[in-house]
């Protein structure tokens, strides 16, 4: 029988849970890397055994990508850090915000603060800077959101190793089609509400919160921005709003169903009126027609999400697993983690009172 593993990264360490395929009962270990910030996690199921990767940051020794090949029983790390800028850049990694599998089995990408992307060809043991992106002439004009300047989205094309789509706060969506030799902004149609009115649709500079897509339809992208929910049907060349029907177009995560490229999930927040859900009702909103219409999931009925919820869910703190039916998970800034074994129909709290949750990842193993 298959099992499910979940990684929960917080501001004070990592927790790892394992469950049977029913995803009702969880056994937890943690904190791993106590008092370190864990902003990124990855469960790599491409090898002969699953590998867990965690991007942890210590105030004493800096950031490190740690790895485990035995479901968190033991951890290894690269001496002097796996992700480091070359000396001539005069830069230092502050946090690893993203870990993402590449198109080929050995490749892993890391997105960092300050805004850069690194590539590994040994499943996350060592990384090399994507130099053309770091040297991009527009980089000097990228800003920093409240969380800092970071590449928090990396989407390698599922069948073309030379194509990668990425997003930075604050800079926008960028894409390479030549294996990192060059990068171009892909933001046409995405507005930037914080800019002057006559500059609301710049070529770059948007505050993207998250981008997602389904591997069976790679030309379609979904984006949750700092104000705006969007879809692109031409691999990011143009975007259009799909926010109609949502209670707010502000939020952080956006997640695509693992088996259905038309089904997408968001967790709206009240934006300027508070970084918590509208009316403080925790709800995941689902579209089953690629954003043309939306339905709220969850409810405070004993098996649902709470109606008194004055906290947010961050950009990487909502995810799915790849079971059938798929599980849906979210972690909140009050340290609660919620799981749905039926893709959002019913919910239960699987662990609580953790530190501030920054990232959640789950997978069938």
Automatic annotation (TrEMBL):
This is Exo-alpha-sialidase. Gene3D superfamilies: YVTN repeat-like/Quinoprotein amine dehydrogenase (2.130.10.10). CDD domains: Sialidase_non-viral (cd15482). GO terms for biological process: xyloglucan metabolic process.
